[in-house]
Amino acid sequence: MVSSSEVLSDRAIEILAKLVAFDTTSRRSNLELIQWVEQYLAHLDVPTRRVPNADGTKSNLMATIGPAVEGGVVLSGHTDVVPVDGQPWSSDPWVLTERDGRLYGRGTCDMKGFLALALAAAPDLAQATLSRPVHLAFSYDEEVGCLGAPDMIAVIATEVPRPALVVVGEPTDMVAVRGHKGIATFTVTVTGREAHSSLTHLGVSANTAAIKLMAMLVELSEKLERDADPNSPFMPKGVTLTVGMVHGGTAGNILARECKFLFDLRTPGKMDPMALLADFFAAAEAMDAEIKARAPEGGVKVERRSLTPAFAPEEDGVAEAFARKLAGDNGPARVVPYAAEAGQFQGAGFSTVICGPGSIDQAHQPDEFVEISQMQRGAAFMRRLIEDLSSAG
After folding, report:
1. Which of the four pLDDT bands, split at 50, 70 and 90, describes residue 393?
2. Which of 23, 80, 141, 264 is catalytic?
3. 142: annotated active-site residue
4. Phi first, then psi: what are they for 343, rounded to 5°?
C-alpha cells in the first residue's frame, strides 16, 4: 500500500533537514551529500552510480528503482546551492527552520525540496510492483552554468533503458513549465600595466579598458531590449544581458593592472548567443592588440564559462501532459526566464517538463524558504507517480 501524502510530506521534510545541513555551495564539494543519499538508498537495496567530475571532487548521482525497461520517468535535480555570503539571514541558513508554515534554509526551494520529495518516495517505489522505473538523476554545478549534468545525461541516453520523460524539479509552485531561456556566461580579464596615476603615459589602466568593453555590453543590452518580440511569452520578453561581477584595481592613485568582470546573456528560443556577441568579441580582440602594443605583458582574455541551451515548448509534450496529470494542473501554458538543465535533457532527445515545489521568487534570497503546503502538494504528486507507475500497461 502506498504511503499517504501526509506521510510522504513528513518524510520529505525530515530528509530536507538532512540535505540543507550539507553546505553544497557550488564552490565546495557535494560529496558528503552524495554519500548520504547513497547510504539512504542502500538501505532500500537501491543501487546507485556516480558520474564524477574530472578530478573527483564532485559528482552526479544516478539510481534506478524498478524494472530495467524503457518508458521510465527521470526525476532530476541539482545538489548545489548559491552562496549565503553577505546576506542578512534571520536564522542559520544550514539549519532547516520552520516559521509560520514555511521551511527556511539555503536550498529549500532551489532545489533540495524536490530532491527530498523524490527520496521520500523511494521507500514506496522500492516496495511497489512497478511496470516502469523511476530514475533519480542528481547533478552538481547547476548554479554555475549547468556544468555537471551533461555527463550524466550522456549516460542516461546511452546506458539506461530509454526513459519516456524527464521531470526537472526546479521551483514552479508545483505547476508545469514548458520552456526556459538559454544562458551563456563569460569571464573577461583585462590586464594592463601598473604606474602612478599621474604618469598615464607609462602604464595602461585595465579598469579604463574594461569600462569601454562593459559600456559596449550595456549598449548591446539596451538594443536587445528594444528589439524584443512583443509577442514573446517570456518576462522579460527578449534577450537579457547583465554584468554580474566586477573586480579591478588596487588603489585610487595606481593605474589598475587587472580588471575582471563576469557577464551573462539569456536567450529565448533558438537564438545563437555567440552570434549576438560577435561584435563584442571583435572589439575585445582589437583591444587586446591595442594593449599589447603598449604593454606586451597585458591584453584581453575572454573565457566562456557556460553555454546552456534554451528549453523549447513541446507541442503535445508527453512530459508536460504527465506532470499536469500528477499535479492536477489545468492552468495556461507557462515559460520561465531562468535557465535550467531542462534544455540539456531536451537536447538529448528526452521529452521534458519543469515542475517542483516552491517559488523562484525565493531562490537565491536571504531567508530562502519553501512553504509546507508546497511540500504537501509535492508529496501528492509523488504519491500519484507511484500509483501511475504501479498500474498495468
Report:
1. very low
2. 80
3. yes
4. -65, -30
